[in-house]
Amino acid sequence: MALRLASVIEALGGELCGDPQRLITGLAPLESAALSELTFISQAKYLPQLRASKAGCVIVAASQREAAAQRGDHIVVEQPYLYYARLTQLWKKQHSQPQEPRVHPSAVIDAQAFVHASACIGPLCVVERGARIGAETVLKSRVTVGENCVVGERCILHPGVVLGADGFGFAPNAGAWEKIEQLGAVHIGNDVEIGANTCVDRGALSDTVIGDGVKLDNLIQIGHNVRIGAHTAMAGCSAVAGSAVIGAHCTIGGAANVLGHLTLADNVHISATSMVTRSIHKPGQYTGFFPIDDNAAWEKNAATLKQLHSLRERIKALEKIIERTTP
Fold first, then answer.
1. Residue 248 burial by CB count (10 A; 0-12/13-18/19+): exposed, middle or buried?
2. Residue 156 — very low, low, confident or very high, per pLDDT cuts 50/70/90?
């Protein structure tokens, strides 16, 4: 169960500086890699660990070539982290277990659902009436794909994912709640990966839509009628409330929240634990959270907080005037 460095270069490219016949028996972190293992370095701050590493071979950028040459075999590439990602894919493909049945015997698939012949459906999965599962998509154990929901091609849904549960819709009625039937579905694009126990609710009328290439971590809640643009990534325990629209190539940090009916432009990046309370129409990095309070007081404090920078500049200007005029 090993790969020669020559085979790695043949499959993935890169400039090998070292022995092409060296056998690699595993991939490992920089600090713990052994003589028969391959690792990588992506940032200059890890150069001290590179010098001390016992790895048989290290993937480096051109700027780290000299430091890597002082310790032994290395592969020079443009983007070490990306190269490492592709190496993990190669490794898994080379060392994969024998193919199991594409549909596990314990899975429940409605007669009116469609599952592509190349898709894999794991143990205890449920695919309801009218649902569609695309080519080469993998449903791990206990995944539920609700009625009329669509999952595109080459997707991975990890254990416990639920697509198409009812959205949270209720109308107040004399102190009680009247259910609003959720008549839409969920539409998942191609090359989407959804982490364990993440829930994507069906739309109230139109569909909830997850675009191509989106990556959702574990324990994420996506509300009804949310739309997430292509190649956006969301970290664990984040949540998006109903009818929010998130653009393409965005990132949402862990435990961050986006309130309902808001819009985030393409290339908006939300820091971990932040609370998005307004639409963001300009690309960039955004951070912020404000303690809960009586709403009227909260709004006044928030308005004042937004003026702190300008107040600071005014105070500094006044201080300079005082310094010039004081005897």
1. middle
2. very high
